[in-house]
Predict the 3D structure of the following.
Amino acid sequence: MELIAYLEKVQETVDKTLLREYGDAYGDLYKASAHLLLAGGKRLRPAVLLLSADTVKKGRSDELLPAALAIELIHTFTLIHDDIMDGDRERRGVPTVHTLWGEPTAILAGDVLYAHAFEYLCHALADDRARVKAVTMLAKACAEICEGQQLDMSFEGRNDVTKGEYLEMVQKKTGALYAASAAIGGLLAGGTMVQTDALYQYGLQSGIAFQIQDDIIDIISSKERSGKDRGSDLRRGKQTLITIKACEKGFDLAPYKRDLSTEELDEVVGNLQKLCIIDEVRAIAVEYAEAAKKALSLIPRSAERDMLNGVVEFFIARGS
Ligand code: IPE
Ligand code: IPE
Ligand code: MG
Ligand code: MG
Ligand code: MG
């Protein structure tokens, strides 16, 4: 099957199942939990988990949908909390949870999804020992995301963040969950340690590439396209490869730490392009995409492995 068609199929299955599970949410807390979950999303982490399972054992993904949903619940929980931290107003084309229900309820709404995720993971049909390892791996990934998010915030407004510090931060805040998605898929499908490690590395490296592209999208894609506030990173003074390179080339982005109009953002993008910064950052995303594919080369070739390679290409080509 062609990659885009496959991703659409996973998206449809995840959307349908979540609607069945959360569609009749009752009361503020559960309505707030369901809001972002049912607002769409690319559902890429579930796709990575299912494809990873099938690279280990063809057809094994059929019984692992609960594990794929668990990852999507964790991801959505991190988004709800991230939007509070980043002060964002829109996500997936709808108002963020805290703008509708307030921060205290949004925190709890995220917590509910976090708890449900572990319940779902335990419902995946797999060997008990593999399931315990998967739960442990997901719990570790969650703590790493917290570490990454803490670093992300601690970098706000600093002007001396290095590329190394940035990479550690994105590896934790974004790489860790993609790594867990791929490795848990492999583990639950009965993969060997070598296969699971290769999948973990694949997820980690591709997750870094994914976040680098997300930083580019933040500044270049319209709100209509991305479904998120454009220029949020500049407004918060986030440190990304874009700001690090701009600083190296003498283009100070600190004055843009405020609400910016479309015209102002277009002007910043124009200046970044003149300095070749977007292209240079893109080239770094390509390096991580290549590292992800290299990690996968330890696994025997299959249609599913080819699709995982395609997924990384998609990560760095996407505009939303
Ligand atoms: C956004 O993730 C958060 C990051 C890690 C950059 P996605 O771009 O996968 O968001 P959705 O799930 O499609 O909304
Ligand atoms: C967030 O990174 C990564 C998470 C762990 C949620 P961003 O803050 O860049 O994600 P977006 O751009 O808001 O989706
Ligand atoms: Mg954010
Ligand atoms: Mg953030
Ligand atoms: Mg972002």
